[in-house]
Amino acid sequence: MSFQTDNKLIKWFDDRLPLVSVMHHTFVQHPYPRNLNFAYQFGSILGVMLTLQIVTGIVLAMHYTAHTSMAFDSVEHIMRDVNYGWLLRYMHANGASMFFIAVYLHMFRGLYYGSYKAPREMIWMIGVVILLVMMATGFMGYVLPWGQMSFWGATVITNLFSALPVVGDPIVTWLWGGFAVDNPTLNRFFSLHYLLPFVIFGLVFLHLVALHQKGSTNPLGIEIKGPADYISFHPYFTVKDFFGFAAFGVLFAVFVFWFPNYLGHPDNYIPADPLVTPAHIVPEWYFLPFYAILRSVPDKLLGVLAMFAAIGVLFILPWLDRSRVRSAAFRPQYKWFFWIFALDCIVLGYAGSQPAEGPMLVVSQIATFYYFFHFIFLMPVLGWFERPKPLPTSISEAVLAGKASTSAGENA
Amino acid sequence: MMINRSIKVLAGAVLGIGLMTGGALAAGDAKELKSVDWHHSGPFGTYDRAQVQRGFQVYTEVCAACHGLKYIAYRNLMEIGFSEEQAKAIAAEKEIEDGPDAAGDMFTRPGRLSDKVPSPFPNQNAAKASNGGAYPPDLSLLAKARVGGEDYLYSLLSGYGEDSHGHECPNGTYNNPYFAGGCLAMPAPLADDLIEYVDGTPATVDQMAKDVSAFMTWAAEPKMEERKAMGFKVIIFLLIMSGLLYAAKRRIWARLH
């Protein structure tokens, strides 16, 4: 049933610009599997976080000065003299962390339920591009306050490109806009930090177009077969998503109001000084697993390539995974390897926070090896050897008959 | 403090990897910090006005000889319990450079509420030149710029002479077990009865170290009380909201069975 109305004004409008029909299609007509569990909340939470980051960021930009001699002072001006400036800045800084918490949980949900598999490869790949752009945005945002970690983080990360043969050094000079991280670097980072969230917004639109083309996966990993299997978005997922926003908001608020600097680094409250190097240069927590991979390889160029490969391998994941069963609930071996992989990522994150020396270096090397081993060896081979459990014939049958399959799904 | 800690531990566990940034720097050769039960700790902690005012007195009479406090304006003193008259009087004790006047000359005038606390040196090099090459950092943000925050500041200021173990420090540096490396360029700034507190509190090293650390915490995070008060309301609101939405969700989804 397509959208119908007797209201002449809405008819006139919708005939020329079908916004109402599209909304109606998305929220009322489009089928959503009835068994989506709380692991599926993070997509909409990410939408809210992106919006919050853009709104707080635009207001912060009205009070911030992108100049090496004024940036640090302007941030303190926001913290002390702008009405609710402290709230805006703490929301924006902690919002970035919350954004990454949500995106990582969103991705782990995708890994657990096989959301990346045919025919949903495009949704997953656009998602990986969004992750890359998010990382660039987060990195450049951390540079803007122009504290010690801002400056030295920018120096370390931009210098990675110097590992490339021949073109390395010219690329770094080009990125910096000079021969060191300086005012031109800060200016372009500000410009790009303002631009990229809107690029993410566009990518999110494509992510959703691709999602609506093939529909959501679900914890059972089987497709919708009939009307008993699906429900409309509204009111079922509207209310569920709003619950998700409020619950996630509690976590967000605890950080913003009680531990606003817990996820940051004290050194970033020291103004940038090109002559004083901090004792340990550490990136923000959400980059630590990749930082560990970078430092676990003794060769600089290979380390940089390994770090990019760690994200690149996600692009080809839909073709690496040879199993035809999507959900880990029906893959007895993969389920174990999934949790081992999740643990491996946490080990990498911890290793990334420690100085790369002694036993910790060996730990990060083993964890790096396992990261790639999981994708390149285990994913194809498991699909070959694993004997999946029998799949239910339909979503409605599984939901209405037994609790076994749903409770298996709710663990993630 | 306990609640503070347990929330921290919980938050760290939830994030899995959140703990590491702090952990990476806590490791070092410095002595474990002395832990103080601050009046401003915890989710409902507020600044002890009398203590922060005493800390300001320590800053003015001791620290200000070498350290700036550039993000604090005299008007901010009203936030820690000074009256407008008192703040004006404190500001007026300082000569502030202003100008240029109509003739193009710089001049000095008594400080006003809108003036920031003037720094003791015109620039970083002048500060270094007067302090044997070491730069005395501005104190406005120091409580947030050091691992351990106010506990670190207190431990350092009250920790001179503890466990020296015959630790030799090169000329012009002084032993302090809480400083990374054990030797720092600042000589012990506090001594018993170095100042006379306006409110009559005995001015022991321990007391002054605590007071000035509390003052520096306020200077670094002047909106903390407003933040915690708003946070409490926001979190209560969100918890009730979550409960209602969860009930609504159950009710709406019940139609499906």
Question: What does this 3D model show about the protein?
Answer:
The complex is a heterodimer of chains A (412) and B (257). Chain A is 66% helix and 1% strand. Chain A has helices spanning 8-16, 19-29, 42-63, 71-80, 85-113, 121-143, 148-159, 168-176, 183-214, 236-258, 288-296, 300-315, 317-320, 332-353, 358-385, 395-401, 404-409; strands at residues 32-33, 230-231. In chain A, strands 1-2 form a two-stranded antiparallel sheet. Chain B is mostly helical. In chain B, the strands form two sheets. Chain B has a two-stranded antiparallel sheet with strand order 1-2. In chain B, strands 3-4 form a two-stranded antiparallel sheet. In chain B, helix 3 (49-61) crosses helix 8 (205-220). Chain B is globular. Chain B starts with a helix and ends with a helix. Classes of the chains: A mainly alpha (412), B mainly alpha (257). At the A-B interface, helix 4, helix 5, helix 10 and helix 14 of A face helix 1, helix 2 and helix 9 of B.
Task: Describe, in short, the structure shown.
Helix content of chain A is about 65%, strand content about 0%. Chain A has about 400 residues and is mainly alpha-helical. The interface between A and B is large, with 52 and 50 residues.
Encode the helix/strand succession of chain A as letters: HHEHHHHHHHEHHHHHHHH
| Contiguous runs where pLDDT drops below 50 for at least 5 residues of chain A | 403-412
Q: What oligomeric state best describes the polypeptide chains here?
A: heterodimer
Q: How far is the N terminus from the C terminus of chain A?
A: 35 Å
Question: Largest beta sheet of chain A, briefly?
Answer: 2 strands, antiparallel
How do the strands and helices of this protein lay out in sequence?
The complex is a heterodimer of chains A (412) and B (257).
Chain A: H1 8-16, H2 19-29, E1 32-33, H3 42-63, H4 71-80, H5 85-113, H6 121-143, H7 148-159, H8 168-176, H9 183-214, E2 230-231, H10 236-258, H11 288-296, H12 300-315, H13 317-320, H14 332-353, H15 358-385, H16 395-401, H17 404-409
Antiparallel strand pairs in A: 1-2
Chain B: H1 2-15, H2 20-26, H3 49-61, H4 84-92, E1 95-98, E2 107-110, H5 124-130, H6 142-145, H7 149-158, E3 174-175, E4 183-184, H8 205-220, H9 224-254
Antiparallel strand pairs in B: 1-2, 3-4
Helix pairs in contact in B: 3-8, 7-8
